[in-house]
Amino acid sequence: MTLAALAGDDFSRSYLSLIELGRSRPSLSALSILASRLDLPISYFLDGSQGAQELVRELALDQAEVAIRQHQAGEALRILASIDDPAHAGPRLLYLRGWALTTNGQRREALPVLHEGLQSLAKRDDVHLRIHIHYQLSRALYELSNVDEAIFHIRKALNLAIETEQDDALVGMITVSLGHHLFVQGRFDDALAHYDRARELFGRVNDLDSLAAVYAGLSRVYQHKDDLQQAVRYSRMSVAMYDAHHNQENAAHELNNVAARLADLGKLDEALGFAEEAVERSLAAASTDEEALARTTLAAIILERGDRAGAKAEAERALAVIGTESPLAQADAWVVLAKLADQEGDYEVSDTLFQQALEMLQEHGHAARFRDISLVYSLTLQKRGNTELALMYALAAANERPANRR
User: Fold this and answer.
1) DSSP assignment of 61-78, as one string?
2) Could you read off the pLDDT of 237-275 as tens digits, one per residue?
3) Of 170, 149, 148, 144, which Cα lies nearest the Cα of 159?
4) 137 in a domain, yes or no?
5) In terms of residue numbers, what domain contains 385?
6) Does any domain span residue 182?
7) Number of folded domains in the chain?
8) How many Å apart are CA 152 and CA 274, to the nearest integer?
9) Is there a domain that residue 197 lies in?
10) Angle of helix 127-143 relative to helix 147-163, nearest 10 degrees?
11) pLDDT per position as a tens digit, 354-374
């Protein structure tokens, strides 16, 4: 490799010459760049002392955390895997690996890593790291739809954060996450109380990304309180904040929420535009979960506009990209196809799809969505004249438990 190629855009050739002659001492970050270009471990350039090796590990951990925050979980996992003697890197390495695995969609693989991180902290007085590991455990469990266990860990994180007087941004982040968990359980008033508390905390620190998450939660609560105007208002505020920070995945999620609520208001043309933009943002973020959710919303809107073929195509596209851990998107896609089958008079297929969707939502603890789809199915059965079964599903919606099919 030539000196110019080694220098790249980061260093001058004269600077590298001074290093070579021993007249300049490079920083650890400079050594890291040079080692990467030479395909060598950074330890190659160090003296092998314990202090130097510790610095190398800390630098690698810092680089991995930066990679995760820049939405490069795969790169973070690569950096973590390259650390020499990972046992000496301690619980922080386990925390970062679990965080990266969760962000990378490998939630089941993240769980044992994070649990090991908690165990390794048993004899250490590092409350801050313990809080973050509980938070990441709750996140992985929540995304696996294990809501009860997720709530256990998020409450642990919140209690520790409050007891040790952690900063408002951290307490707010945990508080809004707990609000999301409670929302999924259908505890809307409790969720609203946590969103209000988080909004107060984030208002103190001007954390726009976190405040956007609060507004997203408020939007969902107002939707289920049938205040759609407020739901749209808060969701649009959330989109604006995520846009300000170029957070494509979260912006896609909130654009999808706006589309759904505009559709509920009967503003189908406007809803269509938001849903299409949500799909585009999810593709830009390379988020298959958000793409699947956006496509199911788009399919539902297209169906409401009377385009059966277009709705079927979008629902099938959603099912094609859905991962094994996306029960909401899968259920919503099945509901679109169930409605199509019902309109075509194929009641057997329609019933099967509706019931599959409800069973999946019940299994994964999505009480609010279970209630909504139970009501949709009840109305569908009522229109067919099957009043007995329609009543069963109306009661199931009220009680948020499965009907006994006959």
Assistant:
1) HHHHHHHHHTT-HHHHHH
2) 776 666 655 556 777 887 888 788 888 888 899 899 989
3) 170
4) no
5) 343-406
6) no
7) 2
8) 35
9) no
10) 160
11) 999 999 988 877 777 888 899
